[in-house]
């Protein structure tokens, strides 16, 4: 989606591998396989197993094979009270005084954010398990939805983060291709809700060279868009990003302004809010998506979005801005900023409430006109938008990612 270098991590990958977590497991029964383990199996109730971070995925699969169900995962700290033996591991263990917080797929808190688990020098190699077209017939360009199997590694992420991809091969100077970042389009649990996949929404970059007149295709986007299902060794780095995270407040109002593939993080939000049902997150607020696209066939995830809007009318509002088909109040093309003008009274009423968050994601060209619109509409209401925006940013209620 956009080029960047990976942000510096607060701690090294090696540090993660030494951290210990407690799995509380139910449903394990004594049998030939479990008798060979080095921890006791209860005939009823739950069993607690201590697992190094580096072996978490493998231990999850092993527990599943044994018929068990993980009911909770917690970091092993000096407050932990457990008599469970440690699961077999070749990793060195650390003492119970470890105070690192959990990085498991649980309700996110600021200190739980996974960053740079994998880096360019040591990438995770994913496998493409799904690649299909999102643009309907008659639409503009090509956009693909890709899903990758990440079950063999330690890659974890949160809604609103990005993942880095380095395409294979070298550039014209004989150097490896540069990293490209793509907003993650799936929830932390993946499209299959099994914590084993990650999904991206990728538009194939295509433009005309002004000097030669020839069509030029983006290196990384072309690589991804043309991946065959089953393709392996897709080099992935990250995750990165804290700007676009979803607030933990289940009563929040989330206003989302998107153009094109900027829908990716918002798809993740909406899937977490409405499609997935978890005990640790029950969204009861309002989510409002204003989605800018050129033509109706370019409405990405159209069927699923409209199904959510129909099923949750009190909690999800869906507004399109279709530039080549709809007209604004002045008779011009309908853009996202046109909808902001149209609904300015409602939007500004929402923004003045402390639980309202404003998100923007898409091509960088969307930001100036939208910011100008907010400035003008705020002035009509006696508000200085620059000051108001700065305060929203300070309160962590304004989130912008453009590329």
From TrEMBL:
Residues 121-246 form the FAD-binding FR-type domain. This is Ferredoxin--NADP reductase. Keywords: Antenna complex, FAD, Flavoprotein, Membrane, NADP, Oxidoreductase, Phycobilisome, Thylakoid. NCBIfam families: FNRPetHCyano. One of its GO terms (cellular component) is plasma membrane-derived thylakoid membrane. It holds the Pfam family NAD_binding_1. Belongs to the ferredoxin--NADP reductase type 1 family. NADP(+) binds at residues 183, 203, 261, 323-324, 333, 362-363, 401. Residues 78-105 have a biased composition (Polar residues). Its cofactor is FAD. Its EC number is 1.18.1.2. GO terms for molecular function: ferredoxin-NADP+ reductase activity. It is found in: Cellular thylakoid membrane. It catalyses: 2 reduced [2Fe-2S]-[ferredoxin] + NADP(+) + H(+) = 2 oxidized [2Fe-2S]-[ferredoxin] + NADPH. InterPro entries: CpcD-like_dom, FAD-bd_FR_type, Flavoprot_Pyr_Nucl_cyt_Rdtase, FNR, FNR_nucleotide-bd, FNR_plant_Cyanobacteria, OxRdtase_FAD/NAD-bd, Riboflavin_synthase-like_b-brl.
């Amino acid at each position: 989606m956009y080029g960047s270098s990976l942000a510096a991590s607060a701690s090294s990958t090696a540090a993660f591998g030494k951290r210990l977590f407690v799995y509380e497991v139910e449903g394990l029964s004594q049998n030939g396989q479990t008798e060979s383990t080095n921890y006791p199996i209860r005939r009823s109730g739950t069993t607690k197993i201590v697992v190094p971070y580096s072996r978490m995925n493998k231990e999850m699969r092993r527990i599943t094979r044994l018929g068990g169900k993980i009911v909770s995962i917690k970091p092993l700290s000096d407050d932990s009270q457990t008599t469970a033996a440690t699961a077999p591991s070749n990793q060195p263990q650390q003492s119970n005084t470890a105070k690192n917080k959990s990085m498991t797929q649980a309700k996110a808190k600021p200190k739980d954010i996974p960053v740079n688990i994998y880096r360019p020098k040591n990438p995770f190699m994913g496998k493409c398990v799904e690649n299909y077209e999102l643009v309907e017939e008659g639409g503009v360009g090509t956009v693909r939805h890709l899903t990758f199997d990440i079950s063999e590694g330690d890659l974890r992420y949160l809604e609103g983060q990005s993942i880095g991809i380095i395409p294979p091969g070298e550039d014209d100077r004989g150097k490896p291709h540069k990293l490209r970042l793509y907003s993650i389009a799936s929830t932390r649990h993946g499209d299959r809700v099994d914590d084993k996949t990650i999904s991206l929404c990728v538009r194939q970059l295509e433009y005309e060279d002004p000097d030669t007149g020839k069509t030029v295709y983006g290196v990384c986007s072309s690589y991804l868009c043309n991946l065959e299902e089953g393709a392996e060794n897709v080099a992935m780095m990250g995750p990165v990003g804290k700007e676009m995270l979803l607030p933990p407040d289940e009563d929040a109002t989330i206003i989302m302004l998107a153009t094109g593939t900027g829908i990716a993080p918002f798809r993740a939000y909406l899937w977490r809010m409405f499609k997935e049902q978890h005990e640790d997150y029950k969204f009861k607020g309002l989510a409002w998506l204003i989605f800018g696209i050129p033509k109706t066939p370019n409405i990405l995830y159209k069927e699923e979005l409209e199904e959510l809007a129909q099923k949750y009318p009190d909690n999800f509002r869906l507004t399109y801005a279709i530039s080549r088909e709809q007209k604004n109040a002045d008779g011009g093309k309908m853009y996202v900023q046109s909808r902001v003008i149209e609904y300015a009274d409602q939007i500004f009423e929402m923004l003045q409430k402390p639980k309202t968050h404003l998100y923007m994601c898409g091509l960088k060209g969307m930001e100036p006109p939208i910011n100008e619109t907010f400035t003008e509409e705020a002035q009509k209401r006696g508000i200085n938008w620059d000051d108001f925006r700065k305060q929203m940013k300070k309160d962590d209620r304004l989130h912008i990612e453009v590329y």
